Description:
Keywords: Membrane, Transmembrane, Transmembrane helix. The chain is α+β, with helices and mostly antiparallel strands. Helices cover 39% and strands 35% of the residues. It has two domains: 30 residues; 163 residues, no CATH class. About 3% of the residues have low confidence.
Amino acid sequence: MKNFKKILFILICILIAFIGGMFFMNKQTEPEITSTLIQNRIEQASDLVTTKYHYTKVGKFENSLNLNGWSIPLTNKYFILTFEGEIQLGTDLSKANVEINDSTIHVTVDKPAVISNSIDESSIEVYDETKNIFNPISVSDYKAFALEQKDKALSEAKEKGLMKTAQENTKKSIKEIVSIIPDTDEYTIEVTFKE
């Protein structure tokens, strides 16, 4: 009977040591939520593209030679151009600032900016093009007109609330990045933009 009690006592001690060790190991392996940990995870996303805006444009180019402010007759040139393009907006997350106060994670990032505004060259079609021998259409006419149309498309997109949409998408994306980190579900995530 004494041996049985000794064996039982030893088994209970081993079991307590094993359970204590497992508990201690779990505590050691759980990542501690720090602003540095969150900032590193956010920075891994680098340039975050949050919004894409597709557009289709039709524009007319018209030009004639001038002399002292007067349009010279028979030198008028014009063409109509259609094309598709895409504007991408995003945020540079390498400049993000992270602070943790109580149960709130505050992430501050730059406002979304235009990362690219490009025309799909395969979509370009030219209509109603003049063949003026006194003032021929050149490649530079097409390039200058396309740049002008890209800027116009960006202005129109901004008027339609593109920047506000980009900010909302940026907040959502950053919250998703942070919420992937284990144990952050206990925190409220707030995203604000630098002025």
